[in-house]
Amino acid sequence: MISLDLIQRTAERLMEKAAIEIPEDYLDGLKATAAVEDGDLSSFVLQAMLENYEAAKEDRRAMCGDTGCPRWYVKMGNEAHIEGGPIALEAALRRATARATHDIPLRPNRVHPLWRTDHDNNVGIGAPEIEYGFEPGGDWIDLITVHKGGLFGTDYRMLFPSDGIQGIRRFFLDSLVAFGKRGLACQPAIIGIGLGGSKDACMVLGKRAACLRTVGSRNSDPRIAALEGELKELGNSIGMGAMGFVGKSMVVDCNIEVGYCHTGGMQMSVHAFCLSSRRAVARLWGDGRVEYRTDPDWFTDYQRRETVEWTVPQDQNEFA
């Protein structure tokens, strides 16, 4: 049985880690980008951000004044048992969000869309978002927090099968140019692309691709993996760098996730994570153990399955 006290304490720690400690995979990707950037202003921004990350970690302060919109992804092993069940779990995550907003502190960005009501804690109707995934086997839960910007850096287009890969390239470039020229995203960023699904599922896929994949990871489909590499190179060839200045560092990495869609369409969404790529992960067991990491490991073979039923591979008794 995984206790609520352990869940809330771990969730509060994750909120702090996400706000202050940039994930190592993203930091390495950003350093690699900075090493090849030759635009004067882009280079200046990248160096300033790298110094800012070190200062944030040393001072234990949020790495960016706009701490985005905290959200949660929860993955449960099939054998996991939670004290009080899922209702208690959600209450614990809402309490952790409110407390962390006050203690870290985080900027209380969440307001009612019409009345602008602000509870000063990033909690309200539908906030924070909590999304779920499940895995066969395992008596653990993974808690993943992402502090995602909540305004721009996202676009959607209904493409059609005849648009093909060329249409994907075109919309990808249209989105990046708009992000850079109109100041709609903080580059360089991890770019997530959702392909297929219904419109809402396409947006979810793209956001998860941006927020729940690490720099350097590749889709398990080799053709999609090749397209990820091509789009990353393409995005860095348009003459824009950090924060839209002249340069060649728009994209730290490009991740694509797909879902089966209606035969007449090919939905596509594009999402820029953020120059301050904020995520943190922990796995909790019923015996009180907690393991912290930065790789969400969300897109397992099970999450990408195409079959009706699922049979655990012979060489794999439990997903890591």
TrEMBL record:
Keyword Glycosyltransferase attached: no
Residue intervals of the Fe-S hydro-lyase tartrate dehydratase alpha-type catalytic domain: 10-282
EC numbers, comma separated: 4.2.1.2, 4.2.1.32
UniProt keyword annotations, A-Z: 4Fe-4S, Iron, Iron-sulfur, Lyase, Metal-binding
Alphabetized InterPro entries for the sequence: Class-I_Fumarase/Tartrate_DH, Fe-S_hydro-lyase_TtdA-typ_cat
GO MF terms held by the record: 4 iron, 4 sulfur cluster binding; fumarate hydratase activity; L(+)-tartrate dehydratase activity; metal ion binding
Family: Belongs to the class-I fumarase family.
UniProt-recorded name of the protein: Fumarase alpha subunit
Highest classification ranks of the organism: Bacteria, Pseudomonadati, Pseudomonadota, Alphaproteobacteria, Rhodobacterales
